[in-house]
């Protein structure tokens, strides 16, 4: 994708996004309709389908945020090291991205690898996320894990360390990175889906490798 820019890149990424948001909608709608099949019987009575939390990595995170914007039954979303490309609504006459002015009105957590510490990345790849965070109408959290790469947020470094080293991983211990992700994910959904408090969201860091900030409208 690095050599694809402008309208072509916009169309490709939004086609990918639409495929994934369609998949998420299909799953939620199927669950609501009771189309679980015999293997899904064990799920009955254990799901609150009017209070859904979504999360995803990379493009999956973008899809989670986009569905959260569109559906009332989705109450909160986490974007794990992804760009909120659904917030890019088009290109202007100078071929620059147009980012929506619509405020994000659900609790939102944005997780990043160490690339987020690069100022150029903040002005390009992560600009939609930063705008969503700064303009959010609900609680918004930003979390950067230092020394982590894009694939440290997956299980690839554990399954295939050799392959992972050829791709986008940082120097952080892979178990430690996943634990940080798990801890903040649980804290976020415990608070915004279940209504339970958690000190991590008050700024008590899970690790010194975490840069954490939050924005609560009205505070």
Automatic annotation (TrEMBL):
GO terms for molecular function: 1-alkyl-2-acetylglycerophosphocholine esterase activity. Keywords: Hydrolase, Lipid degradation, Lipid metabolism. Pfam families: PAF-AH_p_II. One of its GO terms (biological process) is lipid catabolic process. The keyword Chaperone does not apply. The keyword Hydrolase applies. Gene3D superfamilies: alpha/beta hydrolase (3.40.50.1820). Signal peptide: none annotated. This is 1-alkyl-2-acetylglycerophosphocholine esterase. It comes from bioreactor metagenome. The lineage of its organism: unclassified sequences, metagenomes, ecological metagenomes.
């Amino acid at each position: 994708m690095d050599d694809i820019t402008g309208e072509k890149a916009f169309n490709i990424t939004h086609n990918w996004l639409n495929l994934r948001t369609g998949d998420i909608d299909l799953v939620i709608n199927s669950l609501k309709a009771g189309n679980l099949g015999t293997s899904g019987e064990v799920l009955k009575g254990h799901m609150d389908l009017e209070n859904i939390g979504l999360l995803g990595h990379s493009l999956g995170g973008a899809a989670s945020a986009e569905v959260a914007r569109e559906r009332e039954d989705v109450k909160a979303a986490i974007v794990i090291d992804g760009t909120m490309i659904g917030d890019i609504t088009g290109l202007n006459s100078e071929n620059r991205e147009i980012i929506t002015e619509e405020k994000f009105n659900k609790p939102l957590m944005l997780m990043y690898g160490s690339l987020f510490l690069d100022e150029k990345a903040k002005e390009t790849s992560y600009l939609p996320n930063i705008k969503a965070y700064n303009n959010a109408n609900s609680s918004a959290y930003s979390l950067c894990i230092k020394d982590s790469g894009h694939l440290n947020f997956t299980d690839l470094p554990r399954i295939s360390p050799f392959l992972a080293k050829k791709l986008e991983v940082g120097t952080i211990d892979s178990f430690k990175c996943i634990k940080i992700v798990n801890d903040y994910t649980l804290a976020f959904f415990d608070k915004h889906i279940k209504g339970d408090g958690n000190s991590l969201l008050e700024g008590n860091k899970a690790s010194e490798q975490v840069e954490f900030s939050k924005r609560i409208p009205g505070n």
